[in-house]
Amino acid sequence: xxxxxxxxxxxxxxxxxxxxxxxxxxxxxxxxxxxxxxxxxxxxxxxxxxxxxxxxxxxxxxxxxxxxxxxxxxxxxxxxxxxxxxxxxxxxxxxxxxxxxxxxxxxxxxxxxxxxxxxxxxxxxxxxxxxxxxxxxxxxxxxxxxxxxxxxxxxxxxxxxxxxxxxxxxxxxxxxxxxxxxxxxxxxxxxxxxxxxxxxxxxxxxxxxxxxxxxxxxxxxxxxxxxxxxxxxxxxxxxxxxxxxxxxxxxxxxxxxxxxxxxxxxxxxxxxxxxxxxxxxxxxxxxxxxxxxxxxxxxxxxxxxxxxxxxxxxxxxxxxxxxxxxxxxxxxxxxxxxxxxx
Length: 342
Ligand SMILES: Nc1ncnc2c1ncn2[C@@H]1O[C@H](COP(=O)(O)OP(=O)(O)O)[C@@H](O)[C@H]1O
Ligand SMILES: [Mg+2]
Description:
Elements: E1 4-13, H1 20-32, E2 41-45, H2 53-56, E3 59-60, H3 94-97, H4 114-119, E4 135-137, E5 144-146, H5 152-163, H6 171-186, E6 192-196, H7 204-216, E7 234-244, H8 248-262, E8 272-278, H9 282-293, H10 296-300, H11 302-305, E9 307-310, H12 319-322, H13 329-332, H14 334-337
Parallel strand pairs: 1-6, 1-7, 2-5, 2-6, 7-8, 8-9
Antiparallel strand pairs: 3-4, 4-5
The structure holds adenosine-5'-diphosphate (ADP) and magnesium ion.
Adenosine-5'-diphosphate binds next to helix 1, strand 8 and helix 12.
């Protein structure tokens, strides 16, 4: 019997604004681009602090099935349809305008966000149809998206997760894992799950790295996580990145975190530091990283791990200006950098 192989790509950072979302989008689009390659990526926007991919990209929410009284039903299979903006609609997406009043309760799950998945308690019955909650891009790019909610009615609630207690195996990653499990069980086409993580590595980011590390080593997940991950039927490969800008304080804090990862979780070498938006010669940046990492360098295997992505003003630099990412030769080269080719 052939085993199903899934890949978990993750983009974390110590600082905000270093390019996690941009690189996660590039990763998803590059995987989906040769349609005949058979990769079906789902990009999950895990930053629940208000900057949603649903605002940054021109995404269309799915049309959900409804009960006779008109309420959206999250346990129903996908309708296959997405809401299309009408030609005379203003720039502000219709779904956002409909829910913009402070404190106004939105109909839950309409439009659906990651927040709605995280709200469900651990769903071991598998009733939640995360596959029906996925958005797509206006230019159908083959990627399916699950944005976080930017609506003020959801923000206060989301802060609960951010302020929670996190010790490496927290409730957030556990709930996310159940959401992913629901998705892949109902949709056998999914091959890649890409996580665009919130800034900061000491909470949610670290929980996800601990999860990735466990999967990478083929260890079984702790109790309370979905069963059957890393069995003969289902295998996970992981591709985690720690994104940083080239400047000293960002690089140093990223290297500190990498060093920290070596201590409590021996063998956690899979997390790749990615220096984004470089404008200097690669050798200068590598040298800076070597000097800043000091004694850690050999332990981290930094020379092999460190990957560089240059400043790309007209493509990566325009993603949230145009609401889409243009793919040129330089962006295509990211296939190798982001380890998307076998
Ligand atoms: N390699 C790059 N070249 C040029 N601009 C970039 C590059 N990577 C990211 N950007 C730009 O940097 C800004 C912040 O990126 P973003 O992905 O939102 O960061 P984060 O998700 O880490 O907060 C965006 O305007 C994006 O277009
Ligand atoms: Mg972001």
